């Protein structure tokens, strides 16, 4: 991608009345972010009539210049980023209409897997809440999920440190630029997390901490995950916004129960009572609900000198040692899911592909 296209992509959602949802629609219509700026004034499409005025304002030109300057900074400091049009952009997040157009990241690129769990909760958890979070991650470790959270005080950091302890990848979604760290006390954990996981942000690299950003970033925590778990939450709280985003994206939500008179879990009980979330008391509950099986390495001797046809060879190019969902393989290989399922079955019979739970496959 050219620096001009990146600058236009960064600027577009920053404009008044645009945001990520409209920006995606505009890019789909005009073909590129740069063409939105170049051609929207010439468009006769009535749906963009009200937006044309925005692109004529001096403020719009100022935002674009700021984005161009940001691109130079990104390039100079080798800041890692991924655009929503790239095949390696997280598929689950791309299915959300209001997902960011660009994700900045540090550490490792986000894996192409659907087995991602968001664990969120209060910043002031009880000792039982902390203990349950650590126990939950430990119980989930045989299933090898990615643990996702917000790197905040309380349940967030408990979940992420527990993931590290049990050898799981963990990613944190930030409410500020990727170069910042909030809270500062957690900076000591960054390198440890980045060794196998990392940090994600939709904000420009040096964009400062702003409390209003945190509710917005919660949609990314929900959008990346197959399911969201709320451990402890009062009747109102940021963890509940993550749960509501997940529900809006048609994702599974789980909540940990507690005593009816305990205000610290009032939000969890409300989710369960109103059937917005399933009651969760152990990692086994979650694994069973999601249809997971433990990812144990099975000794399998592939057949020597396997004969593969042209189509099978093509599909095999998109498989590696890490599990990958059949939908993602179909997108990358440009094959219909129905046809792909048959080919994967034959490849499994030939001993070159291993099938896992949740329609996941990997190369042997």
Report on the architecture of this protein.
By secondary structure, this protein is of the alpha/beta class. The two termini are 34 Å apart. The chain contains 16 helices and 12 strands. Helix 1 crosses helix 3. The strands form 2 sheets. It has a 9-stranded mixed sheet, with helices on both faces. It has a 3-stranded antiparallel sheet with strand order 10-12-11. Strand 8, helix 12 (266-273) and strand 9 (278-279) form a beta-alpha-beta unit. It folds into 3 domains: 3-78; 107-290, Rossmann fold; 310-363, Winged helix-like DNA-binding domain superfamily/Winged helix DNA-binding domain (Arc Repressor Mutant, subunit A), CATH 1.10.10.10. It has helices spanning 3-11, 19-30, 33-39, 49-56, 58-76, 91-94, 127-140, 155-165, 190-194, 211-224, 238-248, 266-273, 283-290, 310-316, 326-333, 337-349; strands spanning 80-83, 102-107, 116-120, 146-149, 170-173, 198-201, 227-230, 252-255, 278-279, 324-325, 353-356, 360-363. 43% of the residues lie in helices and 13% in strands.
């Amino acid at each position: 991608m050219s620096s001009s296209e990146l600058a236009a992509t960064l600027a577009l959602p920053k404009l008044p009345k645009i945001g990520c949802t409209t920006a995606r629609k505009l890019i789909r219509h005009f073909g590129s972010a740069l063409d939105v700026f170049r051609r929207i004034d010439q468009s006769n499409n009535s749906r963009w009539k009200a937006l044309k005025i925005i692109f004529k304002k001096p403020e719009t030109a100022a935002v674009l210049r700021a984005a161009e300057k940001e691109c130079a900074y990104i390039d100079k400091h080798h800041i890692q980023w991924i655009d929503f049009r790239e095949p390696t952009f997280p598929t689950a997040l791309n299915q959300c209409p209001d997902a960011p157009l660009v994700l900045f990241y540090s550490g490792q690129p986000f894996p192409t897997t659907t087995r991602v769990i968001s664990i969120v909760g209060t910043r002031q958890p009880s000792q039982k809440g902390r203990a349950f979070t650590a126990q939950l991650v430990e119980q989930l470790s045989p299933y090898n999920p990615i643990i996702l959270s917000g790197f905040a005080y309380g349940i967030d950091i408990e979940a992420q440190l527990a993931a590290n302890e049990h050898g799981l990848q963990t990613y944190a979604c930030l409410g500020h630029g990727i170069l910042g760290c909030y809270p500062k006390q957690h900076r000591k954990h960054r390198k440890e997390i980045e060794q196998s996981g990392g940090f994600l942000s939709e904000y420009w690299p040096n964009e400062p901490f702003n409390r209003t950003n945190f509710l917005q970033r919660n949609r990314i925590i929900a959008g990346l995950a197959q399911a969201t778990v709320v451990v402890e939450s009062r009747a109102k709280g940021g963890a509940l916004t993550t749960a509501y985003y997940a529900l809006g994206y048609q994702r599974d939500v789980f909540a940990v129960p507690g005593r009816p008179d305990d205000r610290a879990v009032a939000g969890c009980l409300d989710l369960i009572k109103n059937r917005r979330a399933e009651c969760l008391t152990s990692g086994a509950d979650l694994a069973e609900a999601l249809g997971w099986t433990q990812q144990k390495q099975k000794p399998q001797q592939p057949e020597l000198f396997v004969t593969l046809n042209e189509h099978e060879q093509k599909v095999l190019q998109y498989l590696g040692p890490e599990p990958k969902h059949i939908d993602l393989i179909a997108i990358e290989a440009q094959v219909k899911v129905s046809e792909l399922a048959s080919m994967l079955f034959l490849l499994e019979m030939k001993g070159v592909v291993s099938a896992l739970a949740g329609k996941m496959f990997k190369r042997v």
